[in-house]
Amino acid sequence: MSYVGIQLPFSLKFKRLVKRPILSFFANHIVNYPTPINLTYAWSFGFLAGVSLLIQIFTGLILSMHYSPNIDLAFSSVEHIMRNVNYGWWFRYTHANGASMFFIVVYAHILRGLYYGSYMAPRQLLWCSGVVILLLMMATAFMGYVLPWGQMSFWGATVITKMFSVIPFAGERIVEWLWGGFTVNGATLKRFYTMHFVLPFIIAGFVLLHLALLHKDGSNNPLGVDDAEMVPFYPYYFLKDIHALFLYLLVFSTLVHFYPNYLGHPVNYIPADPMRTPAHIVPEWYFLPYYAILRSIPDKVGGVVCMFGSILILFTVPYTNFSMIRSAHFRPVYKIFFWIFVADFFLLMWIGQMPMRNSYIFLGRYATAYYFIFFYFCFLFQGISRLYC
After folding, report:
1. Do residues 232 and 34 touch, judged by C-beta distance below 8 A?
2. Among 290, 322, 324, 388, which is most buried by a count of CB atoms within 10 Å?
3. Is 196 annotated as a binding residue?
4. How many whole angstroms separate alpha carbon 286 and alpha carbon 353?
5. Structural fold of domain 40-261
6. What is the pLDDT of residues 120-137, one digit of tens each?
7. How many angstroms from the chain centroid is the CA of residue 2?
8. Which residues are the active-site residues?
9. 210 assigned binding-site residue
10. How many angstroms separate the CA atoms of 25 and 8, rounded?
11. pTM (2 decimals)?
């Protein structure tokens, strides 16, 4: 029997089309991906983080075409982008503020995971891969902040890279390798530019790994149960993520077009001068909590260890929590500790931008102490109680 000339129904054509290898992969992992029916907008932060990464890569590629990684030309090349390149100001402001938006959604994504227990078995590797992405983001953002070669860029690079000198035996060698000499110079700028260009693509690779682990174990849900009713990702959560994306772009565009320098530092619009130290060296806002921890510890080695430890401690979260309940909805004591932790994080952020006075240092030590208490005492305590924490 011949079927020549017979028009197949659209539904049958679509079913045959999605059976092809590449299309079937996307259909299984995007369209038909089983998703808990009770997810909220808090689960859209992961999607928005991926969008932020794409924006940063795209705008970064455009800016790299006009930037000169030379200490004599870097600052003027940024001014050239702002003044002479068509829409250069827009790409530069989008890239600079895009880093802030990236950290906002990633921090929210991490706090959502801590609140709903997304780090618990069987998602330990999923959580750890996310922490690796956070570390790579921080390294990329720090190197990108050095590239404009303003006063804060130069002295921020000097202070942060010098911290590696506390590493026993190899510390000084590591600092000299980062600098490409004995001071922050042209070799430092070129190395940072190269690593800032390459690291986003490494981050993208880890994001793919993160997504693979997510689809392997499935998404957590607000109730923290594994037998929740499932629905296809499309159209339910596809439309929810699109709605979240429009709200994200609304905030992002408002920041870029009306408050482009609100999250920056005026000192960085002064060309780098090794002979003039700024009165108050302050990193970008998303590093302020860790900078406050560094300043709060009187010992240099102890401060560096605590600063890096405040990030690396996230790796231990899946293995120090012995609670049998995931969601904070059913852990009232943990919920109280969690919201105090969020307030403590913002307190450290505020302290990090304050001058070095005894009152701020004293307050910073208490805030630092609670930061680590939350991850150790609270998690161990909730493991002992098993039920209410």
Report:
1. yes
2. 290
3. yes
4. 11
5. Cytochrome Bc1 Complex; Chain C (1.20.810)
6. 888 999 999 999 999 999
7. 59
8. 215, 219, 240-241, 284
9. yes
10. 24
11. 0.91
